[in-house]
Structures are given as C-alpha cells and as structure tokens.
C-alpha cells in the first residue's frame, strides 16, 4: 500500500521535473540579460505617450536616451519635461520613420545604439468598409514599414559595434497584434506584421548577440487612445470592453523589464500574459519556466480563447439583431 | 473494487464526450458550407503558379472564373491553357493590385463576386541587412496592401448581394505566415499581416454571411518558387527545408476544399496541419472536432515547436561557426 502511494507520488513529481530539466536544456535562443544603465537607448515615437514615458524611465535608470519623432517642438517639450523630472538630458532627433534616408541619417548622427525601441505607431479604428485606403496605408507605412526602416538603418552599427555586450531591438506591438478584433483590420495587420518581422529577424541577428523583443500592451492611457476612442465603432468598444486600460508607467516598467531580461514576448498585464501563452505558436521562448507554463496551460488557454470568441461573436450577433 | 474501476472508466469516457458536446455548442462562427459550383470565383495572381492551378480547378468544378493579373499576355496564355485542358472559358482582367482605383474598376467590371481569392504575392528571401528597402516595400505593398485594396473594392458588392448564400474571402498566406524564418523578414511580415486582417475582417463581415479563410501552403513548385530559389540565403534553405515541396494542383485542391468548408485556417499538408494547430492562437475555429484536437494537442505541439527552435538555432550557430 505504502509502496503504491510512494510510486504514485513519484509518478506525479518526476515527469514535471524531467520536463523542466529537458526544457532548460533545449530552449533557444539561450537566456540573456541586457543592461540599460549607461547604455544608449533610442526610442521612436518618443515625444508622447508610451514612448515619452519609456524615455523618462530609461533616463531615470541611468541610460543615455535619444528620442525620435517628427515634430521638433514636441521633442523639445519632451526633453524639457524629462530634464525637469529626472535631471537627465536626453538627445532629440526629428525624422519621419517612413523616410528611410531621414531615418538612416538620424540613426547615424546618434551614438551607437544599444537598445532600439521601435515604438512609433498610429492607430485608428473603423470597419474596413468605412476606412479610407489612405488611412490603411498610413498605419502600415508608419507602424510596419517604419520599423523596417529603423532596423535596416540601425543594424550595420549594431552588428559592427565595438562593445560586444548583448544589445536589443524591441518592437512596440499591441494586444491587437495578438488578436484581430472588429474595427482593427489595418492596425492588427500592421502589428501582426511586426511579429513576422521579429521572428525572422531574431534568427538573422542572434549570431551578433542582438536580441529581439515584442511588447504587447493593452489599451494604454495616452492622448492617442483618447483620440481613437472618440471615433471607435460601437461594436469595437463592446468587444474591447473586456480588456482594461493600463497606466503608461505600468506599461513602461513591464516593457523595460522585458527588454532587460531579453524576453521575446513581453506582456504587460494578466490578460496579455494569457494572450502570450495562447499565441506562443512557433515563437522562441527564452525562459524554461515560461516554456513549462506554456506547455501545461496551452490546452486550457485554448478553451478560454474559444469561450472569448463565443462571447465576441455573440456580441456581434446581438448588436446586429438590435440594429434591425 | 470493481465499482470504483467502472466509475473511473466511465469518467474517462464521459469527460471527452461532455467536452465535445461543450465545444459543439460554443464554436463561433458557426460552421458553414460555401458552394462554388455555378458561382463566381475571382482569383488574383491567377495567370501563373498556384493562382492558375486554382482557376483551373475551380473551372473544372463548374465555377464561373475570373482571373486578375498585371500582364495581359500572361492572362491570355492562362486563359488558353485552361480552355485547352478543361474546355471552359475564364474571364480575364488586367490590373495592378497596388492601384486601388484600378482594382475597383476591375472588380466592378467583373460582376458580383462569390468567392474572392486574394492570391497575388511576391516573395524574395534575403537577410534584412542585405535586402533593398524597395524590395521589402514591394512585398508589403503587393502581398498586404494589395489585399486590402481587393477586399475594400469587393466588400460593398458582397455585402449588398442579391443572392444571400454564403460567400467567401480567402487569402493566400504561406507557412512563412505561421512562423518567421531566417531570410523572410519582409515576406513573413506581409503574410502575418494577412492574419491580422483576416481575424478582424471575419468579425466585421460575419453578419453578412461572408466567410474568411487563410490558406497556408508550404513551398510550392511554381515559377515564382524557382525564381526565389536562385537567390535564397543558404541558411534559409537549411531551415525551411524541413517542410516539403508541394505541387500547385495539390495546393489548389486543398485551398478550394477549405474554402468550401468555410475553414478559417486551411493547411495543405501534414506539417502545415501541425503548424495550424500550434499557431491556433486567438483565431476562430469553426469545427468542434478540430477545436477538440487543438485543445488536447496544444501542450505537445508547444514542446515540438520548442524542439524546432532548438534545431533551427542550432543550425544557425553551426553555420556561423563554419563561416569563421
């Protein structure tokens, strides 16, 4: 009897332990730490919103910061604001991320970059039938092609850097880059595209000790969000209501911590964490503990996802029934 | 003793059954069949490769087919080829998918569309640092923005159609749209983008009985593939080689069958099927049986995905070690 209980307990404990050991051995790319103190952090879309808050936090943590945006005045204001709150001076550079030559020039005029945060983004919601193609193109140009421009401009410098410590390229995605939701065809397309870029890029740059991160914040309390919400289709609001709004400084903390721990997928709240597990797909996982969590919970998480979809499509049905 | 054994067995058999019933009740959107016989199938990139094969297959199955491409000459050749092999005449229309006005004119001249297959695509594999921004932009313009143009042009007609039978919008993605691989930053970005578009679009159009599908072929034996192979980086061949090469008529059959059964994800071979399960993420699943398979296999597939990462990053390490 006692022997049977003992074997049973052993059977319960041993497989997870073996799995953990197995995972620790096979996860690639290997875990890494990326320090930001005294290193150069280059943030686009850095004069407002999440980018501005990132710049302020990075400066407070001792990084040398450069912020890029289009509007020189807003950049000056941001610089002043950061100096007032942290005592630190950030460098500013004005360029439109859609213009490769301007981006190249901006990147080359700055110091060698250790952490590149492609954070610029525009977003507007609307059913595709109502969106102008001009607006679709703008989102894809700024959010996706702009990021390609930045990476392409910064890569040579990063690959040939003299300081061979690990460096990082981070992309600000969104929960809209994990799931496509009513009203977000173009925005989701641009953010999903960042993931394709990131997964392939990580394979291309790992040999140079460059580490790629994708950050997935939910709706974050910024001026841009306020603008977008005013013009959101009702159904988008109904469906998006299930996700809460985060404060910028919380998003910033999660972002920088994720970059410093070299994580490929950086989630910002619990829902985002579940979203990352659900959408792990074939993305790399650099933490064997997270890999373990992904494996044992992915089945249940898929059930939760199917329930969410049942709820989304139910809302859509109900809304259309009311409209008639 | 026998009682507890029996109850245990009953529990083991009943649990899956209850779960299947639960899934059957909650999968959304509900399953649907989209007939193509005697209906209008509009295929872009239809003058060669997979598009031509789909056009031929659809014509054989009794659909009225229109093929769109840029070159009128190639369209005429394709039309002749289809007439010779099936005896059926397809309509042809010349337009560049990157030009919204031209696409709109083409779609309106073609008449009401029942099945829109956005199949046009360009692909060139290169490390991001070696690839021309013009080529990168080209892939995103043709593959992603071109598709937005097509959907936006066709949607009003589809929404206001007189025949209210189910209709379909299908996007030709790729296994590179399920996982980003060395050399495919731009191509994967464009194909991942299609998924963001598709997930959001399905929510926007379900009320009009429009059904969205994403097709994920592996490398397929086409002129485009032959072109791509000439310049592909070696590491891309090593890593992507793990999935086989399919014939375009096999891909065409899988594509059309998937569209007819209203599936959101349409894989074309066994590796593709496993990839679809692994990357189910937050995508809708219209078949309760497939949902069951997704849930029970999710954990194991994540382990397999992590093993693939170990292989790929191992190949990258080894290749770079040799280069030194």
TrEMBL record, chain A:
Top-rank taxon, per record: Eukaryota
Principal place of residence: endoplasmic reticulum
Domain Ketoreductase: 39-209
Subcellular location: Endoplasmic reticulum
Coiled coil region boundaries: none
One Pfam family from the record: adh_short
Pathway: Lipid metabolism; sphingolipid metabolism; Sphingolipid metabolism
SMART domains: PKS_KR
UniProt enzyme class: oxidoreductase
GO terms of molecular function: 3-dehydrosphinganine reductase activity; nucleotide binding
Catalytic activity entry: sphinganine + NADP(+) = 3-oxosphinganine + NADPH + H(+)
InterPro entries: KDSR-like, KR_dom, NAD(P)-bd_dom_sf, Sc_DH/Rdtase_CS, SDR_fam
Family: Belongs to the short-chain dehydrogenases/reductases (SDR) family.
Protein name: 3-dehydrosphinganine reductase
Organism, scientific name: Deinandra increscens subsp. villosa
Lineage: Eukaryota, Viridiplantae, Streptophyta, Embryophyta, Tracheophyta
Automatic annotation (TrEMBL), chain B:
Compartment annotation: Endoplasmic reticulum
Entry's Gene Ontology BP terms: 3-keto-sphinganine metabolic process; sphingolipid biosynthetic process
Predominant cellular place of this UniProt entry's protein: endoplasmic reticulum
UniProt xrefs under Gene3D superfamilies: NAD(P)-binding Rossmann-like Domain
Reactions catalysed: sphinganine + NADP(+) = 3-oxosphinganine + NADPH + H(+)
Keywords for the protein's UniProt record, in alphabetical order: Endoplasmic reticulum, Lipid metabolism, Membrane, NADP, Nucleotide-binding, Oxidoreductase, Sphingolipid metabolism, Transmembrane, Transmembrane helix
EC number, as in UniProt: 1.1.1.102
Highest taxon above the source species: Eukaryota
Enzyme class: oxidoreductase
GO cellular component, one term: endoplasmic reticulum membrane
Pfam family, one: adh_short
Pathway entry: Sphingolipid metabolism; Lipid metabolism; sphingolipid metabolism
Family (UniProt): Belongs to the short-chain dehydrogenases/reductases (SDR) family.
Name the UniProt record assigns to this protein: 3-dehydrosphinganine reductase
Lineage of source species: Eukaryota, Viridiplantae, Streptophyta, Embryophyta, Tracheophyta
